[in-house]
Amino acid sequence: MFDFWQRALFFPFLVLVGSLLLWGIFDALSAALFFGTAILLRLIAQLRQLAALEYWSMSSETSSVPDASGLWEEVFTRLNKMMRKQREAREKHAAALQQIEQATSALPEGVAILDDADHIEWCNPLAELHFGLDAARDVGQQITYLARQPEFVQYLSMANYTEPLILRGTRQDDLVLSIKVVPYGVNKKLLISRDITHLERIETMRRDFVANVSHELRTPLTVVNGFVETLQDMPNLDNDMSRRALLLMSEQTKRMEGLVDDLLTLSRLENSLNTLVEETVDVPALLQTLHLEGQSLSAGKHVLKLEMDCAAKLQGNTGELRSAFGNLVSNAVRYTPQGGDIVMHWHKLEDGQTAFSVSDSGIGIAPEHIPRLTERFYRVDRSRSRETGGTGLGLAIVKHIASRHQAHLNVVSEEGKGSTFSIVFPAKRVLL
Ligand code: ADP
Questions:
Q1: pTM of this prediction?
Q2: Architecture, CATH, for domain 279-431
Q3: Which of 128, 142, 273, 405 has the fewest CB atoms in 10 Å of its CB?
């Protein structure tokens, strides 16, 4: 700084000394004239440099700062350095951005960035393809204006994105997308779409295969079972061995029939075309019936109680709910040793939710098994399940029925102490 002032004042000082000399040698007028002219010329030179800077600042950013001399030279050099650094930083950022864009373009998923009002800020080519967008034209537009499926609009407005949305027929009728939203930053959203058309096709083939095989097995099984029963009823069947063989055949064919029935039920529940037929379900009346059926299944081996804390009915399907509730009661009877207690409970929870719970004092389940209970054919103890006529499909059926009613299955259990299975219904399904 001191150096700056030294250099800045050096010229006026020289002019002042020259003027004083002139005054001494000649007269005051010559000295004043010399001083005025010198300062004016200096001022003009400074203004020229300022004009060059002003002209540069108005021209394109890319041209370099003009050459300068004297005091300005240093300022201009610094400015030049700053500009170069800025340009380099910008180029670095642009290269990084380009790399990110190239990487996201190569992603096997569609990615779009949405602002707090769901306007598209950016999207990659796959997102353009999935939602029928044109980035050049649609950036800045609200995505729900361009992709209008009600389920998509509703999903975007939700605050909970833990489960992906399966969206059919977005752009073309046969396209199936799995959509996920990841909130980030301040109210921004990352919309990720994945084409699962192929996976869905395989899943449909698998479902159709299971349904067809089950269907094909049903008739021969009924025929075999019919003959076994006829043979069992024959009066001249005196051979013990034949009697035993027929008994075993009858047990096994009945088991297979149960399995085929459960597989067909699952196929029907999984079929997306088979929508829920809704009606008013008189839950208290249904539970009375299930209580009687449970007692007959238990055959006096357990104390089976029914507790109804509310008289609420449900908006749903009676047949499906009967099957789901019945499965829980039957499991409690099958997995509770003789003399145990079982309680069927219909009660209200907070926020208007209502739950059907079955608590038992049975064998209970170790914590590591609980998350897998609703998988098909998952059994904690295979032999016990088989002995009691289980198919390993009951809780898978319960879970499907619950989710068709937007309800969820809760399991609380302790090994050796007992279990409570609850189906919790959302307030919108509860009719008071
Ligand atoms: P299963 O026909 O074998 O009973 P489920 O799908 O109904 O098939 O149940 C899956 C498994 O969960 C059962 O095999 C059993 O191990 C366990 N389970 C279900 N309910 C109970 C219960 N109330 N107490 C203890 N274990 C149970």
A1: 0.69
A2: 2-Layer Sandwich (3.30)
A3: 273
